[in-house]
UniProtKB/TrEMBL annotation:
InterPro entries: HTH_MarR-typ, Tscrpt_reg_MarR-type_CS, WH-like_DNA-bd_sf, WH_DNA-bd_sf. This is DNA-binding transcriptional regulator, MarR family. GO terms for molecular function: DNA binding; DNA-binding transcription factor activity. It holds the Pfam family MarR. Residues 25-161 form the HTH marR-type domain. Keywords: DNA-binding, Transcription, Transcription regulation. Gene3D superfamilies: Winged helix-like DNA-binding domain superfamily/Winged helix DNA-binding domain. It comes from the Bacteria. PANTHER family: TRANSCRIPTIONAL REGULATOR, MARR, TRANSCRIPTIONAL REPRESSOR OF EMRAB OPERON.
Length: 180
């Protein structure tokens, strides 16, 4: 398999040890990014993914992903999250209701508010889309030796740690900016 260097990779031209170390680090990052992109492309070629058979528009998929993540939402809140008006949202919701993927019900506390949530079929579809690559990834990992799996596990732990740190830093910065 041929690995292509990422277009953003530029070899170090300096001669100091620090510059060489930074250049080596950038090369490694570029190689990892290139491999990750190749892996994503290989997984994306799997046409058994439920996304390909769903016939959802991008807007409908966004609605269903938001409902999957946040649960039942008021129509106005969902419209704000999507950045669309109430009328535009209404049409998108209507089409998903007809497909029995989402429901629209009255809010128990305020009859003027319509709550939008996933149906069982909608939940199953979104879960299938989100977890589509899991079986393929498990099959791929099962081909590795125990030693190779240890390396992959350690690398994943490092990435999760740094992603968590970054999320915490961004949340703290957001709180600082909002004056809390």
């Amino acid at each position: 398999m041929v690995f292509h260097r990422a277009p953003w990779y530029r070899p170090a031209t300096g001669t100091s040890q620090k510059e060489q170390a930074l250049g080596q680090k950038e090369k490694l990052i570029a190689d990892i990014m290139g491999s990750s992109i190749q892996l994503e492309h290989l997984f994306a070629d799997d046409r058994s993914d439920p996304l390909f058979s769903s016939h959802l528009t991008m807007s409908q998929l966004k609605i269903m992903l938001l409902l999957s993540r946040h649960g039942t939402l008021a129509g106005g809140e969902l419209a704000r999250m999507l950045g669309v008006g109430a009328a535009a949202l209404s049409g998108m919701v209507d089409r998903l209701v007809v497909q029995d993927l989402i429901t629209r019900t009255e809010d128990v506390n305020d009859r003027r508010v319509r709550r939008i949530g996933l149906t069982k079929a909608g939940t199953e579809l979104i879960e299938g889309i989100i977890t589509a690559g899991v079986a393929k990834q498990r099959e791929l990992l099962s081909r590795l030796s125990a030693e190779e799996l240890t390396i992959v596990a350690q690398a994943m732990e490092l990435l999760v740690r740094e992603a968590g740190s970054q999320a915490a830093e961004e949340a703290a910065a957001g709180e600082d900016c909002s004056g809390r």
